[in-house]
Structures are given as C-alpha cells and as structure tokens.
Amino acid sequence: MTRLVSRWTQEETKMLNSLVTRFKKNFRRVADHFPGRTYSQIRSHFYNQIYRSERGSFKDSRSHPTPVQQQEAQQQEVSFYYFTELFE
Questions:
Q1: Which of 23, 40, 45, 80 has its Cβ near the most Cβ atoms within 10 Å?
Q2: Which residue ranges does the record assign to the HTH myb-type domain (predicted)?
Q3: Are 46 and 27 in contact (CB under 8 A)?
C-alpha cells in the first residue's frame, strides 16, 4: 500500500484536530480516517504542529493579561482603595 508523502492541508489539520478531540490521543483510531497517512505521520503532525502551537498560545495568554483581566485588576485596586479609606 502506498502512502501519501505531501504537505498537510488545512482541511486535514482541522479534521485531525477534531478526531483527536473525539478519540483523545488514540492515533491508531484516528489513522483509520486518513487512508493516505500512516500512524507515525499523524502522530508527528499532531505533536509538531497542533500540540506545539496550542501549548505556545496557552503560555502567551498567561504571560499577557487580556483587557478583561486588566479591567478586573483595576476594579480590585479601586475597591481596595475605598475600603482602606473607610478605616482611616
């Protein structure tokens, strides 16, 4: 059986992502849905492209607060200021 040796398309990547969500990291079951890809190709693509990019975006979101988080922090500072004013 010949296997595809080509770049992953966006559709394949989206399909892989949804199948991993469905089957967790059981790449043998995921490989059944990709007749032209091997188990090894699927697992490698997931860990080298999808998992790495998701993990990187998670780290970025923790290091830089979102506007909502910034606003909540400001509100906490203001309420603390008024609270301390009451007891002086």
A1: 45
A2: 1-54
A3: yes
Q: What is the DSSP string of 22-77?
A: HHTT-HHHHHTT-TTS-HHHHHHHIIIIIIHHHHHHHHHHHHS--HHHHHHHHHHH
Residue 21, in any domain of the structure = yes
Print pLDDT tens along the chain (88 aa).
555 568 899 999 999 989 999 998 899 999 999 988 999 999 999 988 888 777 765 454 455 666 777 767 666 665 555 555 666 6
Name the residue type at position 44.
Answer: S
Write out the two tokens for 42: 């699927």
Number of domains forming the structure of the chain: 1
- Residue owning tokens 């603390």: 80
